[in-house]
Every structure is written in structure tokens, then in C-alpha cells.
Design goal:
4 strands, Tetrahydropterin Synthase, Chain A, four-stranded antiparallel beta sheet, transmembrane, alpha+beta, cell membrane, Flagellar protein FliL, flagellar rotation, 187 residues
């Protein structure tokens, strides 16, 4: 009878090493996950330090040159054309009208399709912005470029994306990448 109780103890003796093996596996997995998180945090810090160098002017110049080389030639760009805008400009000296045909460069076709759902708000924001301008503000190339950036911020804001911090415009990925004027007529 002394031998019968020994057999049940043998499997019971094997069970604790299995639990210890499971515990060792869990510890290894936790350590690996922590290493991945730490490596990701270090990588993010390195990228942030490169983007925000000692002098903001040096960080901005390479960013302005980077996008043309970042174009993937295997994928054509995706544009979303907007209907023409015709607005009264703010009075400066007499009545002036602006007619603009705008296209938005977006990240992908899915984003272009999603814009349709936001189009009433996008058109509203662009109409308000265009009608708030003086003719003298939008007659120069610099004025039109500034207007394009304002429209870009308004469209991305309508999509729920806050405007990028000053000086980091080219480094922040947004659904709408740029605003293009296909026609711009002031009368």
C-alpha cells in the first residue's frame, strides 16, 4: 500500500516544473515587450532631437527640400477637385470678386473618398476664409501661398486634424497634403 500513494505524487511532482516553465515563459515575454517599448521610446527621442535641432532655421531648410525626394513614383498622386468658389472680397476700394478653382492633394484614394462626407463643412470654411481677404492680400504670389496654407489648415481641421506647430509643417503627416489653385481670378 505504500507504493500506491507514490504514483499520484509523481505527477504532482511533475506539475510544479511545468508551472515554473510557464512562469519563465511569461517573464521572458514581459522582458521582450519592455525592451521593444524602450527601443521605441529611444527611437522617438532620437527622431525628435533630429527634427528640433539646436537652431530651428537649420531644421526647417532640409524639411523644405525633403518632400520632392520622398515622392513614391510607383504610386501616382491623388487629387480631390473642388467645385469653383466665387466670393466677394472684403472692400478695399470698390467691389472685387474672387473666383478660384481648387484641388487638394491627399494621401490616398480612401482619403479622397472620405472628403465627400465632409464637403459641406470644407466648402463653408473655405468660403469664409476667401471672403475675409482683401484684394491686395491675394494679388501677390506670397499672398496666394499664405492663403493656400490657411486653406490647408482649415481643411485638415474640418477632418479633425489640428494644424501643425509653427516650423514643423513639412514634418507632420496630414490627410490633405497641399492646396493647389487651378484657377485664381480677381475682378
Amino acid at each position: 500500500m505504500a507504493k500506491a500513494p507514490n504514483k499520484p505524487e509523481a505527477p504532482a511532482g511533475d506539475a510544479p516544473p511545468k508551472k515554473g516553465g510557464k512562469m519563465l515563459m511569461i517573464i521572458i515575454i514581459v522582458v521582450l515587450v519592455l525592451l521593444i517599448v524602450v527601443a521605441g521610446a529611444i527611437g522617438a527621442l532620437i527622431l525628435l532631437k533630429k527634427g528640433g535641432g539646436e537652431n530651428g532655421d537649420h531644421a526647417e531648410a532640409p524639411a523644405a527640400v525633403a518632400p520632392p525626394s520622398a515622392v513614391d513614383l510607383s504610386r501616382p498622386p491623388v487629387f480631390a477637385a473642388l467645385d469653383a468658389f466665387t466670393v466677394n472680397l472684403r472692400r478695399e476700394e470698390g467691389d472685387h470678386y474672387l473666383q478660384a478653382i481648387i484641388a487638394l492633394r491627399v494621401t490616398d484614394q480612401k482619403t479622397a473618398d472620405a472628403l465627400k462626407g465632409f464637403m459641406p463643412e470644407i466648402r463653408h470654411r473655405i468660403n469664409l476664409l476667401l471672403s475675409s481677404k482683401l484684394p491686395s492680400e491675394v494679388q501677390t504670389i506670397e499672398g496666394r501661398e499664405a492663403l493656400a496654407l490657411e486653406i490647408l489648415d482649415q481643411v485638415n481641421s474640418a477632418l479633425g486634424v489640428p494644424p501643425p506647430p509653427p516650423g514643423q509643417r513639412m514634418t507632420v503627416a496630414t490627410p490633405v497634403q497641399s492646396v493647389l489653385f487651378n484657377s485664381f481670378i480677381i475682378q
